[in-house]
Amino acid sequence: MNEPLKGVRIISIATNLPGPLAAARLAAFGADVIKVEPPVGDALAAAAPDWYRELVSRQHVKVIDLKAESGRGEFHELLAGADLLLTSSRPVALERLGLSWPALSARYPRLCQVAIVGHSGTAADLPGHDLTYQAEVGLIDGAMPRSPYADFTGAERAVSETCAALLARELHGRSSYREVSLADAAAYLAEPLRRGLTTETGRLGGGFPGYAIYPAREGRVAVACLEPHFWQRLKEGLAVDGSRASIEEAFLQRTASAWHEWAQDRDIPVARINDETKH
In angstroms, rounded to a whole number, what is the distance separating the alpha carbons of residues 51 and 57? Predict the structure, then answer.
């Protein structure tokens, strides 16, 4: 089935980035997603309007003031016919709105909830964002990250937890509350670093000459020749002994674009690094 979640209704009050990413994926799976936004809108719409429109293109967007009594009444009407509520607010904020899990589960026995939070458990009310979660686990090395990796990983986890909650309800007849911690998502991404794979001397961090970044005559190339047959093919193609110095000297003879085409012709995993920044 191209739309495995067809017939499932999801209410999302998750704004910023991980929530909209997850909601867009769920809508692509066929779920009927109603995105409820506050009167001020979603900050993502102001930061990246084109991307925001793309993400919500399969969703129904409704503006509801959950701080107003009339707004809460309208929102509860939506919840009455929903299968799952997706949130990204801190638990204390949801509790102030009367949307704590105990209150929701008592009122809507079949409703599941997936809560995207910063930290898990008792630390769920601590403030933070993708940058701080990456910083805590050592993924920041002095430069701003090129992508909000924890947010993206958290979004995919939210999709998985949504599917797990809905499946568990069908199999066991019980709704559930499932939590997705962005800090835990960042820690998951940092596991290769913790295991030594991506440190400077690690096999995936530049310690192995066949998996590294090299300057070309113009631009840079990424070399990913981990497997013995690729590594041997690279050495033979470059006519080098496999030392880092010999590989560096070889790559300086052509531009990165030329090496990219050269590698494709020889079935070698070498690619030009795209340093262009889209404005």
Answer: 10
